[in-house]
Structures are given as C-alpha cells and as structure tokens.
Design a protein that fits this description.
It is built from ten helices and 20 strands. By secondary structure, the protein is an alpha/beta fold.
Amino acid sequence: MSSAHRFDRGHTDDLMTFLAASPSPYHAVANTAERLEKAGFRQVAETDAWDATTGGKYVTRGGAIIAWYVPEGATPASPFRIVGAHTDSPNLRVKPLPDTGSAGWRQVAVELYGGTLLNTWLDRDLGLSGRVTLRDGSHRLVNVDRPLLRVPQLAIHLDRGVNQDGLKLDKQKHMTPIWGLGKPNEGDLIRFVAGEISITAEEITGWDLMVHSVEPPAYLGRDQELLAGPRMDNLLSVHAGVAALIAATASEGLPYIPVLAAFDHEENGSQSDTGAEGPLLGNVLERSVFARGGTYEDKARAFAGTICLSSDTGHAVHPNYTERHEPGHHPVPNGGPILKVNVNQRYATDGSGRAVFAAACERAGVPWQHFVSNNAMPCGTTIGPITAARHGIATVDIGVACLSMHSARELCGADDPYLLAAALTAFLEG
C-alpha cells in the first residue's frame, strides 16, 4: 500500500466482504442482522408485545431492517438519532414467467428495476440471487454466485455506427440474458433454483430473484486509493451505518437512542411497506416510546428532538464531464463524506442540518465536502425528504462521492467508507 493512505483499510476490507456477500436486499438484511447479533442485539418480532428492556434490538421485514439501542437511563421522551440508508440497487429482476428464448437460445425474462445504466450489464458474467417463498410462508435465500447468465451485446459488424451514433438499447428486446442453448421449458429456472438450495420445485410458490455481477470488489489504481465494486449505492452506507451503531453502543451516557434504518425500494420511489415512505420506521419508533411507558405527548417530544442523517452516495466530479457538475462544488474521492444540498427539497438539508453534520465531522476528525447539482441538470433524491415529511423529523442528506452511480460496478475513494463510518459514529454518540 502507498504511504499516501491515511487510514487503516480494515473497514474498507470489511465493506468489500459485505458487498460480495450481499447480492440482494434480502442478503444485505441477513448479513446486517448477523453483525448485530454478534454485537449483542436481539431480534424482536412485530407481532409480539415489546418490553422496556434496555440494549440493542432490531426488526426485519423483507429487504428492510431497523435497529436501535436503548441505553440505561433512557426516558420515554428520549429523542432518537437515526442513520437512514437503503438496501436496494438498480438491476435486472426475474419476471413471474421467466422461461423464454428464441433462435435456439434459452433465456430468462427480466424486468428493469430502478434507474439502471443498461449498458453496464452487457457482456458481464452474472449470477442469480434473492429469495424464494415456500408453501408454508417461509423464505429461503438464493445466491448462485458464479457465471450463469449474460446479456450479450451486438457485435460491431452488425452495428457499424455504434461508436458514432451511440448505443441504443430497447429495454424489452435487448436486455434479456441468455443462460443456455435449446428450447425454453416452463419451470426450468425455478427447478434449477430449487436444486441449488436442495429443495423441490413444488415447494416454491413465489420468488423475488435478480441478477448480479459475480466480479468481486477490488482496490483500483496505481496506489490502490480507489474502490470498485457493485451495489455501493447504497450498501456502502448500510455497512457504515451498522458499524457506527455498534460502535456507539460502547459509549457511556448516550443522550440519544441511536437507530439504523435501512429501507428497500428507494430506487423506485420508496412506496412500499418496506420503503421509507411506508409506516415501518414510524411504527418502530412509536412502539419503542410506548414500550417504555410513554404517551403520545412523550412520542411528540421524542420526535421533535430527533435528527436523521440520510446517507446515500452522491456524484464525485467526473474528469471527462466536468461541465455536467456545479463549477463551484467539486467533491473528490477520499475528500471525506459530502453534505448534499438542494433548495427545492430533493435533499432535506438546511442550515441547521449543516451545523449538526459539521459538528459530527469535527468531533470525528473527519474532513467533509459540499455537493450541489448543476442548475441545468435535474437533481436526484433520497429517503431524506421522504423521512422528513413522513415523520416530521429533522433530516440531513449526506453520503460518499462516487463515479458510475447506478452502474453494475461503481467507483469511490477507498478511504471514504471509513471516514463516513467515523462521522456517523460521532453523530450517533451525540
């Protein structure tokens, strides 16, 4: 490693392990829960009565997980400090009738999920992951983490103008992966999946399956100061959030109840029972208040003092397209986490939120940067404004600057994941 590296790479090494082991939101939730369990957290069921015990607890629902730590001395009106993130990433997801094909090829019918950069899925070795639902209502995780599918690009001999005119992809016609030769047979894919997890196809009554790149995360560059990998939008923040939550539990006299809220379906609007626009977070926070003997008044007081850091990736300045960025705000990799601002409320940050974030970074000894979009470019959004509006909670949008956002393989600074986690830890500790 170059002497230019300022920080121990243990956190980033662990992030790479987490990314590789989490090809779907369901795997991300399972891996997050496993880390919490090792740190002494215990799972509570939404269908059970909750109690007033202190310590770490968590709830899972599909591709979402919410974890919180009740310190000794917490009152019903104790406010929360929340790190918000999301577990989903743009990709290709298997359709209800997946077995298709033509011209002697067996293919898998897929639907496009989120704002996918289609060309990044071409000519890439793809695995299959997600979950299946069994007749008894239980779920089994699926992870075929080897080359299984491929979306082949048309050869240049058959598209002579591609380099001059640009690649044009029809979402219905051109994105169907191949996975073999011959005629498609109904039930082939699910029979294959059943065999991979050692059950019979007849036991499977539903599925939520998707493809993923099997290329592992890797350090990149002459001095390995960059990190390339899949699903960093937004598993990088989920990983940093769980690390920060666990670290915060070691602090004495926590003035807040630290929370990690990792939602599903951010990439398509968050409108689901596991998305940020659903009631899950509010229900968990309210039940925590009421389990400690609180009233509606206590809940209102707790929410009024609560702050959420919505952590998601943002755009580093692209050296080949600098004109697409705001000229006075050029976040760079390894410059520390970014504070995301949009006065039209695509991000929820205001001046008060800036002060909260700056204080956390100062306490952690972490540098930070500003991000704002070019006025001529539409701005993306996050769970931040949704959380603020849905629950009346003060929210600040932050993240890590990266390139190739929504690609099958993204790029960020290798020091930034640690810097983000350090800032989040300081925030949760208050």
